[in-house]
Write a structure and sequence with these properties.
Layout (H helix, E strand, L loop, with lengths): L6 E5 L4 H13 L4 E4 L7 H5 L9 E4 L2 E4 L1 H11 L10 H15 L3 H6 L12 H11 L5 H26 L15 H14 L16 H20 L4 E2 L2 H9 L22 E6 L8 E8 L3 E7 L6 E7 L3 E5 L6 E2 L1
Parallel strand pairs: 1-2, 2-5, 4-9
Antiparallel strand pairs: 1-3, 3-4, 6-7, 6-10, 7-8, 8-9, 10-11
Helix pairs in contact: 1-8, 4-8
Amino acid sequence: MAPHNDIVLFHYTYSPYARRITWYLALRGIEYAQCLQPPTLPRKDLDALGVKYRRIPVMSIGRDIYCDTRLILEKLETRFPDGALGATQPDQKAIEKLLEKWCIDGGVFNRASQLIPPEMPLLTDPKFKKDREDLSGRSWDKKHITAMRPEAISHIRDAFVFLETGLLADSRKWILKTKKPSLADIEAIWPFHWLTGLKGALPPSFISSKQFPKVFAWIDRFNEAIASTKASAPKPTTLTGADAVESVTHAEFSEPEGKVVEDPLGFEKGQDVEVWPIDSGSKNHDRGVLSALNSKEVVIVTQTKLAGKEVRIHHPRTNFRIRAAGGNTESKL
């Protein structure tokens, strides 16, 4: 197999979404390379690969490029099946999937992001503020953030209650009573882990280890498990932007070309289309030739800027939209 398994993870270190992937790779001991990105646009390395999608992380395996952590985790589980972290029993798979949807689509992280402390230095940076307003579609003015905090605290406290009195009520170590963290733990823990590490985000009079000892103990165990695993796991190879682009450009595709199956949207293989997320980052559209479409993902072929090499960009179906390039009719994916 190629060095670092042909995997390049494009991310920045304090992205809570990127941690979902770096935790997974560490827990699995999967060798990979990383290309660190700026927290705001532009991201010239991804642009050079023909990627317009603006959210982080993005992962390439060869010349297949994957957007959205849900799809990235699914691809890693499939590509490295021995020792996979995903549930195997139908009822546990359902819990795992529900936790994914709860945190991402159900509003947990959206509310968590509203608890960024107004005094955080980054909020004084006009470039960062404008970038996040473009990403989220809401104001990042300090007055607006301060006004949203009480309601956000109420919602996040309710999420802590759900974990404390529900999934963790019997003092289990891990969500699915596994011997070590599973994918279900990653799906559930990441917004809460992020908040507990963000100084000033959680008011201790409402949310602390005093009110939620089981949740905070779970987060502590997870931190210990990650630290222990990282000590023995392969260290990621850090690539410059130019080296990352060259690595992807000169690689082979990592999976066979898929098919466009019969779908309510009625698109055909070879059609020029645009794809973009509809929950955040909606201003940035990827455009290319439709290569594959099924119930889980949409794949388009586009070209890198410098070498003109074909790459495949994969997006999940959930909360992504597709339309014929240049068309006026939008169809939800």
